[in-house]
Amino acid sequence: MADAYAEVSRRFGREMEELPGCRGFEVLRSDQEPEVVANLICWESSEAVRADDGSTFLRFKPELKPLFVSNTTETFEAL
């Protein structure tokens, strides 16, 4: 299921990168646990994150959700 999730995530990422303030989107896979796939979204500012209404994710949610094993969201700020 990780391969299927990664494929949908790549399509999701291409659309996310079109949003104002989104600087990049990467689909990452763990070297130690190949079934672990993560999406990394880089935003230009906290304001850009807050301006995202989530509609892009909601369009992809029906495809992504059946492939979730678990879901964790973490936010990091550049130092």
What's the topology here?
Elements: H1 2-16, E1 22-29, E2 37-43, H2 46-51, H3 55-64
Antiparallel strand pairs: 1-2
Helix pairs in contact: 1-3
Q: What are the secondary-structure elements, in order, as H or E?
A: HEEHH
The major sheet is characterized as: 2 strands, antiparallel
| Overall shape | globular
**How confident overall, as mean pLDDT?**
92
**What CATH architecture label applies?**
2-Layer Sandwich
Q: What is the count of DSSP helices, taking H or I runs of 4+ residues? A: 3
- How many structural units, i.e. domains? 1
* Share in β-strands: 15-25%
Structural class based on helices, strands and sheet pairing? alpha+beta
Spatial order of strands in the largest sheet:
1-2
- Give the % helix: 25-40%
CATH topology category name: Alpha-Beta Plaits
- CATH top level is Alpha Beta
Could you tell me the number of beta strands? 2
Please tell me about this protein's structure.
This protein has 79 residues and is an alpha+beta fold. The protein has one domain: Alpha-Beta Plaits. The chain has helices spanning 2-16, 46-51, 55-64; strands at 22-29, 37-43. Strands 1-2 form a two-stranded antiparallel ribbon. A hairpin with a 7-residue loop joins β1 (22-29) and β2 (37-43). α1 runs antiparallel to α3 (55-64). The longest helix is centred in the N-terminal third of the chain and has 15 residues, at 2-16.
